[in-house]
Amino acid sequence: MISLFFRNLFFTIIQPGVVAGLIPYLILRNKVDDPFVGPFHFYKVVGVLFFLMGLVIVFDCITRFAVQGKGTLSPADPTKKLVIKGLYRFSRNPMYVGVLLILTGEAIFFHSNNLWIYALFIFSMFHLFVLLVEEPRLRRDFGEEYDRYCQKVGRWFLR
Prior knowledge:
This protein has five helices and no strands. By secondary structure, it is mainly alpha-helical.
């Protein structure tokens, strides 16, 4: 169990940490003033709410992958069981939705067109990855159980 915890921590830092943390920082650095100085803007509150919603979703999904799926979020160390409970009842890919909400929150908070473009790019990459890599692997690993799940739950949102 301790090994699983550290593997999840590692992949959380490497995958969503880089996509939703490091790269947005690199996009924004030297391009924004201190976001906490200056007048209050309602859009900053909206941005924080999107960010927090996404963060909660990502951590819920990572926890479910570890506890229910006995694996990690990484394709290099996938779950041993198909995770279909919690947010996975509403979307087959809530972790990706969570990361996109984090990116949306950052784009709103920092009022950054570059982050919007990056978020759209990331959504495109997620979609292609899901279609070309993830779904074929899940069909191979879980067979009919995954097919039944796909009939009930949409790729991104409810059917």
